[in-house]
Specification:
heterodimer, A: alpha+beta, Ubiquitin-like (UB roll), 5-stranded mixed beta sheet, 3 helices, B: alpha+beta, Aldehyde Oxidoreductase, domain 3, 4-stranded mixed beta sheet, 4-stranded antiparallel beta sheet, 4 helices, 8 strands, about 35% helix
Chain lengths: ~80, ~140
């Protein structure tokens, strides 16, 4: 699946997007974050404060316990600050 | 109608576009947000932003009787005094237009995927914005 990172998360991870193949045990958004955090110190730092992470599955807001299914893209970002 | 753009917008032009040729609109409310104090850079999640704005607009249409809605949000680098966001609501009577405009801004600020950066520092989300959106639940 394609992952996208925005704002401070993109800066911490150092990538705007990437393609990943998580293991089958990754079922929801929280699992995906936990798995990403094992991929390196930059991921661990970016996702450190899980409660402040917002996610979207196929461009729809998704909670941490939202099942992933088979998405085209999953995005991670901090709380939005437009307007 | 919603648009995300780098260029400025003109409020009179946008109102005219909304009301042109119509005799069913009795009230037009506009909200425009301007950049304060410091230069900001705005980025967004292209694709999701447009979807969210369309959803927010649809939600407003289920709650109030609106004849038309315009939402324009700018991205890129903006200086103090620059326009950043425009919401226009049109209805038969003023109450719907007033309330819907406030609702649209509250929802936009908490749901539309835009992020502001001031120099190298990302602007933090405000709890007061969450509270403002919460009261429409």
């Amino acid at each position: 699946m394609k992952l996208l990172y925005f704002a401070s998360l993109r800066q911490k991870i150092g990538l705007p997007e990437e393609d990943v193949t998580p293991p089958d045990s990754v079922r929801d958004v929280a699992d995906l974050i936990d798995w990403l955090m094992t991929r390196g110190p930059e991921y661990a730092a970016a996702f450190e404060n899980k409660i402040t992470i917002r996610a979207a599955i196929d461009q729809e807001h998704a909670k941490l316990d939202a099942p992933l299914g088979h998405p085209r893209e999953v995005a991670f970002f901090p709380p939005v600050t437009g307007g | 109608m919603n648009r995300v753009q780098t260029e400025d917008f003109d409020i009179s032009t946008e109102i005219a576009a909304l009301t042109k040729g119509r005799s069913d609109i009795g009230a037009v409310v506009t909200f425009s947000g301007l950049v304060r104090d410091v230069t900001l850079t705005l980025e967004h999640y292209a694709g999701m932003t447009e979807r969210e704005l369309t959803k927010i607009e649809a939600e407003a249409n289920t709650r109030w009787k609106l004849q038309a809605v315009t939402i324009i949000h700018r991205i890129g680098t903006l200086n103090p005094g620059d326009n950043i966001v425009l919401v226009i609501t049109a209805s038969t009577h003023r109450k719907d237009a007033f309330e819907a405009a406030e609702f649209l801004m509250d929802y936009l600020k908490t749901r539309a995927p835009f992020w502001k950066r001031e120099g190298d520092t990302w602007v933090e989300a405000k709890a007061s914005d969450d509270d403002a959106a919460e009261r429409w639940k």
